[in-house]
Backbone:
């Protein structure tokens, strides 16, 4: 409580970290399951590998980079979410915030991508997606779904879901 937590170069089957009013930095670690949560503070994860990465905060920004976890779940109530440096092992990214922007960089992804994006208070259009990556767009239940060339549900792929109420979403 009220103090920062820095975790570096840890290997574990399950890693669980939570804080109140203190930032969390998780760096260069391996965990089959990593659960990181905070109230009123920022969370940063860099160089994390494993099967499942869950990050939740209330009133804090979440920034992840160079993550190689196959399933990534990131949720905040009041804060921005930034995802950079997605590695090949990543299969699912699920992000949501009530009051904040979401930015997911997929420039280093070399497999087909499906991105389902929903802003509950304003329409999403193709300007929220990188032109050079996505070729097909569908609107479904108030969400915009974008597919890159070669996307097939049965092949190796990356599925992204991003949802906000008050903010912008960019997949680029």
Residues:
């Amino acid at each position: 409580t009220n103090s920062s937590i820095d975790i570096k170069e840890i290997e574990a089957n399950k890693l669980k970290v939570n804080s109140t009013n203190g930032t969390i930095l998780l760096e260069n670690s391996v965990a089959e399951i990593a659960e990181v949560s905070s109230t009123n503070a920022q969370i940063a994860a860099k160089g994390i590998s494993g099967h499942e990465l869950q990050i939740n905060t209330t009133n804090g920004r979440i920034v992840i980079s160079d993550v190689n976890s196959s399933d990534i779940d990131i949720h905040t109530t009041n804060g921005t979410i930034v995802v950079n440096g997605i590695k090949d092992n990543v299969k699912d990214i699920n992000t949501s915030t009530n009051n904040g922007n979401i930015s997911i960089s997929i420039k280093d992804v070399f497999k087909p991508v499906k991105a389902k994006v929903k802003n509950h208070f304003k329409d999403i259009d193709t300007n929220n997606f990188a032109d050079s990556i996505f070729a097909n767009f569908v609107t479904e239940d108030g969400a915009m779904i974008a597919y890159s060339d070669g996307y097939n549900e049965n092949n190796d792929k990356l599925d992204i879901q991003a949802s906000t109420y008050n903010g912008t979403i960019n997949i680029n």
About this structure: Residues 46-171 form one domain. The first strand starts at residue 5 and ends at 8.
